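Wait, mind explaining this?

_____
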Amino acid sequence: MPGIVELPTLEELKVEERQRMLDEFERELPDFIGYEEAGEGTRLPLRSLLSLVMVLLRRSPDESHSSKVKVSSAVLKAAAHHYGAQCDKTNKEFMLCRWEEKDPRRCLKEGKLVNGCALNFFRQIKSHCAEPFTEYWTCLDYSSMQLFRHCRKQQAKFDECVLDKLGWVRPDLGELSKVTKVKTDRPLPENPYHSRPRPEPSPVIEGDLKPAKHGSRFFFWNV
């Protein structure tokens, strides 16, 4: 339509930015070659160094990139019950991994699944129940200390909307706090408790040990 300009998407902007940085690095490449030929004592152009660092640290566009869930505390609190029910297994698998591995690097895969579940959850709410959900979290945001008791009417409308359009039932109080077993395909680590290695027992003393000549030395005299 005339008068309407189509803006590029975020992914297209990332690809264009990365290509621009690569082109700039290729233009500065002779400076690197001259630096290597001259050896030590030649100053490396700052612009070339920055370009190299940016290219090396920049993720390629075909890599899996996880977007952040950019919502406020009121939005999280309003959606907490339904989110906990819909992403229960994913969250518990992530927490089990964090507890067993004691290393965040080993749980990046589970963390991405948690992030993806949260994004999908809020996208569904935005597509089907945006208006009642906005009224609900806005009420919580403006209420004293974000208490639920001040927003029961908005909560009922939101629960009714997700039940009719998504089939989600609001969990009962305390249901998400129950102790449950998590079934996961991740292998159990060798030392899940990260216990210290047990000390080796003292070696057996070899030889014929005879009793002390003057008896016990516990007291300075013998009884």
User: Anything to note?
Assistant: The CA atoms of residues 94 and 108 lie 9 Å apart. The longest helix spans residues 10-38.
